[in-house]
Amino acid sequence: MESKHSKRLICLGLLSLFIFGACINASAQGRGRGGGGGRPSGNSGMGGRGAGGVDGGLGRASDRSDGRSDRGLGTASDKSGGRSDAGLDRARAASENSRKADEELRQNPGLAKGMNMSANDLRSGYQAALATNPDLKFGQFVAANRIAKNLGDRNPNITTGAILQGLADGKSIGQRLQELGLNSKEAKDAEKTADREIKESKRQK
After folding, report:
1. Phi, psi (rounded to 5 degrees) for 115
2. d(CA 140, CA 14)
3. Of 137, 132, 124, which is closest to residue 97 (Cα–Cα)?
């Protein structure tokens, strides 16, 4: 009996050791999978920045912030009373008009020569005027310079700057010339003369 009892104790002890060892092994494997799973996740994040760049990160910003980043950008116009949108529109208009002016100067080098100016001077003057009036067309700027050159000696108040100010206020060249002292016929004649001279200068190479 004593021998059988001893055998049972030995068997129970071996069984306990086996169960204990199995538990330790399972726990170690669980930790190994958890650690291994976390690391690739971190590396994947770094890889996402490398592959997607800044744009990739910004593209996921809305998801990560539950849309808060989109709402923040979307309310910028409201918070500025629409000024942010208006500023962008003005910048786009000025840029497009400046680009068209460069093309016209390349195609018509005589435009500047007809006013005893270099192309760079005419271009710089136009770009400065765009800062005040982004919607100003290059043709209007050239006409204002022509008219001021033709009439400035007899009418000192008719200057390029004065004409451009009227255009920035929403007036036509004819309306502005009348505000500066010309009658309707004189204003029309001044515009016709300037238009003819500009066409002639475009034929020069």
Report:
1. -115, 15
2. 102
3. 137
pLDDT, one tens digit per residue, over 93-107 is 899 999 999 999 999
What is the per-residue pLDDT for 113? 83
Q: What is the phi/psi pair of residue 132, to 5°?
A: -90, -40
Report the distance separating Cα 168 and Cα 3, nearest Å: 115
Instruction: Tell the residue number behind the tokens 């000024």, with chain if given.
Output: 83
Copy the structure tokens of residue 28: 């170690």
Decide: 62 and 70 in contact? Cβ < 8 Å.
yes
Give the contacts of 139 (CB within 8 A, at least 6 positions apart): 198
Query: From the CA atom positions of the chain, what is the Rg in Å?
Result: 40
Instruction: Find the DSSP H helices in the chain.
Output: 2-59, 61-64, 68-74, 76-79, 83-107, 110-113, 119-132, 138-151, 160-168, 173-179, 184-202
Checking if the pLDDT of 14 tops 60, the result is no
Q: Which two tokens stand for residue 81?
A: 């009373």
Q: Evaluate whether 130 touches 97 at the Cβ level (below 8 Å).
A: yes
